[in-house]
# Entry
Amino acid sequence: MEKEKLLSILLSLYFVLVVVTDFYYKYSVVNNIDLFRYSFLLKLIIGISLVSFSCFSLKLVDYKKTCVIFFLLVLCSIISIINIDERVRYSVLYIQGQYFFGIIVSFFFFKFYKKIVYKYLETTLEVILWINLVLIVVGSFYGTPLFKTYIHGTRFGYSGLFKSTSVATYFYMFGFILFFLKRKSKYNYLLLLNVIMALLFIGSKSSYLFLFLVTLFLIGKAILNTNRIKKLKLFFGFFVTISIVIAVVIFKVIISLNPVLKEVFETHGVVTAFFSYRDHLVTDVLLIVKEKYKLMNYLFGGIEHVPRLTEVAIIDLLITFGVVGGGLFGYIFVHNFPKIKKLEMKFMLCIIGLIIMLRGDFFYFPSVVYMALAIFALIVKAEEPNKMNLKMI
# Structure
């Protein structure tokens, strides 16, 4: 138990340090100061710590398939960089390293969530939620650049401590699922309202899409639970139609209230406005792939040919590791994913999965993947309410 307590305190400390170092980086960007990037060093320490703990705590023979697949993924990475220009080799290794960090963190939280004393991580999360809500409110009242989601430009959004849209959006989406699951106490209801308010203030289309789809699901489920619907097909047809109409109206309102999105919408259309130019990035990358890729690039990746990632998860994964490496990466993640029992949780996680597929910025963003999966571990554990290390709900 002492070992598990120390691990839990360490994970909570890492959680705080991820937030602090990211805010430190955000501060340097806002004030145009060239500061040392402590966040990179922290992520390196976290990765080494989690690998070490996993190696010493697990019987690796029980996970030999995952170990073999991981070794093959490393081999794919080596093959992909053997013959590339040395000037871009470091950049390629850096991006691949971020993906490996994502796999390490995923495996750790998927396999060790039962061994963590969760009161430390939960308390840490709650404190950050309250502090960040204050910063978001202050930022929205005074227009404080340091607390804005979009530092450059006039687009609306306040994320407080968090350095990017992705970090804030995934942090609060996973937070929503956790406190929705634990909403039986008044305090957890307050935390849920905290999360909803933050999702509205972040200003990202992903946060609005998440709230919209979750709301539709809960309304539809509540109606069906009344057992008054006799013609299910007719009901679903009507419900989907109304939902689409409401979605179009909300999207138009968001566009009209945001000068940046409005200009993109009027210039390039609804698809580009929704994807924030990701559709253009995908088109450009596909043209480069068609022109420059060789067989080895298709199999093991050819990220050196691409000026930047598309921020669409599947495409970026294939660019980085190719068909072979991308398949191995996906297998490790899916094979070790814990079972989710509750229908609401499955649906909400599917929404997040859809958003990841559409916008990316998850597996290769170390801050995102660590904080999101730490909260995910709390979610999985919250489905086991009788365990001693779960705070009473």
